[in-house]
Amino acid sequence: MIPVAVPYIARNSSAYVNEALGDAAISGLFGRFLPEFERSFADYIGVEHAVTCSNGTTALHLALAAHGIGQGDEVLVSSITNMASFYAVLYCGATPVPVDIDLDTLCMSSEDCLRKITPRTRGIMIVHLFGQSAEMDRLSAIAAEHGLAVFEDCAESHGATYDGKQTGSWGTAGCFSFFANKIVNTGEGGMVTTNDAALAERMRSMRSLSFGKVDKFLHEGIGFNYRMDNLKAALGCAQMEEIEELVAAKTRMGQTYNELFRNEQRLILPVERQRAKNVYWMYHVRLADDVAPRRNEILGKLRDEGVDPRRVVVGHAQSYPVFDYHAEIARRGAFISFDRMGATNEYDRLKTFRMVRDILEAGFIRNLVLSHDVCYRSDLATYGGAGYTFLSTELRQYFDELGLSEDDFQQIMVDNPRRALTGAE
Ligand SMILES: Cc1ncc(COP(=O)(O)O)c(C=O)c1O
């Protein structure tokens, strides 16, 4: 099965985790990796402070709670998201108000955001979906004009930028998830980024039961245990050493799909906006009118053939009023295969492309040239030798059919992160 996600384990993961184990630094209260992960993440995002926590959901809750969102408040939330964005508002006793999306970015629509502001609105939760940044200049201007806090849900947007500025550095707080399928992953884990020192301080206190500063057990308020432990932070530090490559590899994967599907009229592909750098955390397509009614059948066939696609998040449509654009995505949206970092990913991508095309065209897989076996052996030949020397007749034919020259193929194959496959330097 070409999976929807496989976590990447960074080069120094075992060494760092073993070091933490050797020091018995396994809790969330001490160990060198906790502050180091926070520092390197803050530097990467370009903010003053970063606060680790147990996952992306608790990152969202921590940010809202530390900002003082509470009963009677409304927070505007982008309507296509993981429900964690909504739950975090509900945990605070506040009311999440869904806002429709822009159809091309799938992120919050600034027009609808403006329409939803009431005297009770205290914040906007902007979700950078699938690796694509929302329109941060306009949304930030709206927030500033109305005195609203901006909470960026960056669970899916590590490394994505708008006007060259990282998502997670625009708002009051940026909330990240390090769940196993995320670009930076620690299995489970989260982080809040901010330039507000007082907010960071409150979050540090609240994530750890609001312990007292003078007498630990004279608590300063009601806190949570949302601590990340030092073992997870060790994984995070190892990942941060490779962040540029991870983001670049992921971006290239999305761009390869764009290239492959360029002439496919039946798919509506993700956009590349000039001011926003899409990192393609998850490659998302919409089905055009003629094939949209067959979505479930198409996804089922892909699954039968060993590609694990997903329908886009339709569950939310049952949870609150459905908007035009939201409904559009609920009806037509699909992920096609997500990518692992390395291994057979370029082959997987071509194979996926071939399958999607065949199913759209003929309703069945006509001629699947690449078997796993061929992929695997070819990969070894590619990465083992000097450049690409092993191109079987079968593969040549296959790439000819795809309209890829040997140069294109070289580019695709040789750019692939070799290290991830072989572990070699
Ligand atoms: C947009 C979004 N927000 C929040 C979350 C929640 O993060 P976590 O699973 O780490 O709690 C996720 C997903 O995992 C997500 O994709």
Name a few traits of the molecule.
single chain; 425 residues; alpha/beta; Aspartate Aminotransferase, domain 2; Aspartate Aminotransferase, domain 1; 2 domains; 7-stranded mixed sheet; 4-stranded antiparallel sheet; 16 helices; 41% helix; globular; disordered C terminus; binds pyridoxal-5'-phosphate
Q: What can you tell me about this protein's structure?
A:
41% of the residues lie in helices and 13% in strands. The protein has 425 residues and is of the alpha/beta class. It has 2 domains: 228 residues, Aspartate Aminotransferase, domain 2; 180 residues, Aspartate Aminotransferase, domain 1. The two termini are 28 Å apart. The C terminus is likely disordered. Pyridoxal-5'-phosphate binds next to helix 3 and helix 4.
List the SSEs and their pairings.
Blueprint: H1 13-22, H2 33-45, E1 49-53, H3 56-67, E2 74-78, H4 84-91, E3 95-99, H5 110-116, E4 121-127, H6 136-146, E5 149-153, E6 161-162, E7 165-166, E8 173-177, E9 190-194, H7 197-206, H8 230-240, H9 243-260, E10 267-268, E11 276-277, E12 284-287, H10 295-304, E13 310-311, H11 324-332, E14 333-335, H12 345-362, H13 372-384, H14 393-401, H15 406-414, H16 418-422
Helix pairs in contact: 1-8, 2-8, 3-4, 3-7, 9-12
The structure holds pyridoxal-5'-phosphate.
The sequence of SSEs as H and E is HHEHEHEHEHEEEEEHHHEEEHEHEHHHHH
- Derived structural class: alpha/beta
**What top-tier CATH class of the largest domain fits best?**
Alpha Beta
Let me know the average pLDDT. Answer: 80
Total beta-strand segments: 14
- Which cofactor or ligand species appear? pyridoxal-5'-phosphate
Question: How many DSSP helices?
Answer: 16
How would you write the strand order of the largest sheet?
A: 1-9-8-5-4-2-3
- Tell me the CATH architecture of the largest domain: 3-Layer(aba) Sandwich
Strand residue percentage:
5-15%
- Residues in helices, as a percent range: 40-55%
Assigned CATH superfamily of the largest domain: Type I PLP-dependent aspartate aminotransferase-like (Major domain)
- State the assembly state of the protein chains: single chain
**Major sheet size, sense and barrel closure:** 7 strands, mixed
The backbone outline, from C-alpha atoms, is globular
In total, the number of domains comes to: 2
Question: Taking Cα atoms only, what radius of gyration do you get, to the nearest Å?
Answer: 23 Å
Distance between the termini: 28 Å
Runs with pLDDT <50, length 5+? 314-319, 337-344, 364-394, 413-425
